[in-house]
């Protein structure tokens, strides 16, 4: 047993070992072409480049075997419903899919770690980690379609980018006393000129001005005139300033554009995803120690949501909670439907309000139908008790449908509920 323990410890140390130093590049031309350094630059030079151009590219930072494992894990339909052609799919809870994602965190290149230490201070944390898949369009788009998709994708990142007018806040710039945040993109499939690679406006973070509203006239045009397309191969990592204006491109290639997104924050910042409070304990235990530290699983984080201790995948539990919330209270999600509809240009007066009303009626009707369907077996069982008749079964409806007992009816309700939970889980 002692020998086995030693082997396990060595294995964990191996997982936490940083990858060999990758080639560092920074795109300096509008075409996105990069040139490699003759020798590795120091942290001061790297930081200066990052804050001058808004991004750096670390070539060959992730071994190809880990890239393959990550892509395979994200292709499993168990955790995320496949997006439609041209859709941007978020694959949540990747930490639960495969240990490789925690290994990628533990094995970040030394250059990235030193930059984060310098900019955010030591003990920085990843406040978010999830997969991002841009599906092929399946056809060539015209210029208007490309512009519309690009405008919808243009943004700057959490937390400041989510406190602007578009999201109900009032922030127009990053206050001087607040630090910038950093973002990571692990490239898992080719980022080419046609596959939807990331576009960044170099230097757009410098004056601390935030992208207040992507629908405001002139913002998108300003971005397009200055943006650089960041190209890369599987295994590369893009590091960029989160407050820089950027977007994911339109994928008109024949393959999916697959990546993992990570958000690097000072340790005292609120996390966008609550990995510390919601990740199952069995997933935390298999992480390399360095990954646990960088995700915020410190010794003082003893306060945990009770369900985090259950040895079950998180998504099914959240699916049940989300379904109950939708059925009992109603659920619109993070989408500000009224705000989005009012921003659609060219709508006649009074039409936005009408569209909001129609959408609300549609959502509430769907909720009512779901409730009726869920409790349908109990309704049919009550027909037996009352001796009623209904057209769907012609005779005493409960008996014809095999619902003579309350227990049978409740079993049917449970099966329907579990089916709904499964459906909601796929959408989470």
From TrEMBL:
Residue ranges of the TM segments: 368-388, 409-427
Q: Which Pfam families match?
A: PhyH (PF05721)
Going by the UniProt record, its keywords in alphabetical order are:
Membrane, Transmembrane, Transmembrane helix
Kindly provide the name given to this protein in its UniProt entry.
Uncharacterized protein
Q: Which Gene3D superfamilies match?
A: q2cbj1_9rhob like domain
Q: Cross-referenced InterPro entries, in alphabetical order? A: Phytyl_CoA_dOase-like
């Amino acid at each position: 047993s002692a020998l086995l323990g030693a082997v396990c410890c060595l294995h964990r140390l191996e997982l936490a070992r940083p990858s060999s130093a990758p080639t560092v590049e920074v795109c300096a031309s509008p075409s996105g072409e990069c040139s490699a350094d003759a020798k590795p630059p120091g942290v001061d030079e790297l930081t200066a480049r990052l804050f001058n151009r808004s991004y750096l590219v670390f070539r060959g930072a992730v071994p190809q075997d880990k890239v393959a494992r990550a892509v395979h894990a994200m292709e499993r339909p168990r955790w995320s419903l496949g997006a439609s052609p041209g859709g941007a799919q978020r694959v949540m809870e990747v930490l639960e899919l495969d240990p490789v994602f925690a290994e990628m965190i533990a094995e970040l290149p030394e250059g990235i770690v030193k930059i984060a230490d310098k900019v955010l201070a030591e003990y920085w944390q990843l406040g978010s980690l999830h997969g991002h898949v841009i599906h092929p369009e399946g056809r060539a788009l015209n210029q208007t379609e490309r512009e519309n998709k690009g405008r919808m994708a243009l943004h700057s990142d959490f937390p400041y980018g989510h406190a602007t007018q578009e999201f109900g806040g009032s922030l127009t710039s990053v206050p001087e006393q607040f630090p910038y945040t950093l973002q990571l993109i692990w490239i898992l499939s080719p980022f080419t000129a046609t596959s939807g690679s990331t576009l960044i406006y170099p230097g757009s973070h410098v004056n601390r001005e935030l992208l207040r509203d992507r629908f405001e006239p002139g913002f998108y045009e300003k971005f397009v005139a200055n943006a650089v397309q960041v190209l890369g191969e599987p295994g590369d990592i893009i590091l960029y300033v989160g407050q820089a204006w950027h977007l994911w491109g339109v994928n008109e290639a024949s393959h999916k554009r697959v990546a993992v997104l990570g958000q690097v924050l000072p340790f005292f910042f609120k996390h966008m995803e609550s990995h510390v409070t919601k990740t199952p304990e069995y997933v935390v235990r298999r992480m390399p120690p360095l990954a646990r530290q960088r995700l915020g699983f410190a010794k003082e984080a003893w306060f945990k949501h009770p369900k985090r201790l259950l040895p079950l995948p998180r998504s099914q539990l959240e699916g049940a909670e989300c379904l109950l919330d939708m059925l009992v209270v109603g659920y619109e999600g993070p989408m500000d439907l009224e705000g989005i509809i009012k921003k659609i240009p060219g709508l006649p007066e009074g039409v936005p309000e009408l569209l909001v009303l129609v959408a609300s009626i549609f959502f509430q009707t769907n909720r009512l139908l779901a409730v009726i369907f869920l409790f349908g077996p109990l309704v049919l069982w009550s027909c037996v008790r009352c001796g009623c008749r209904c057209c769907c079964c012609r005779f005493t409806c409960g008996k014809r449908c095999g619902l003579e007992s309350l227990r049978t009816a409740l079993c049917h309700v449970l099966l329907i509920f579990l089916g709904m939970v499964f459906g909601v889980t796929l959408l989470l």
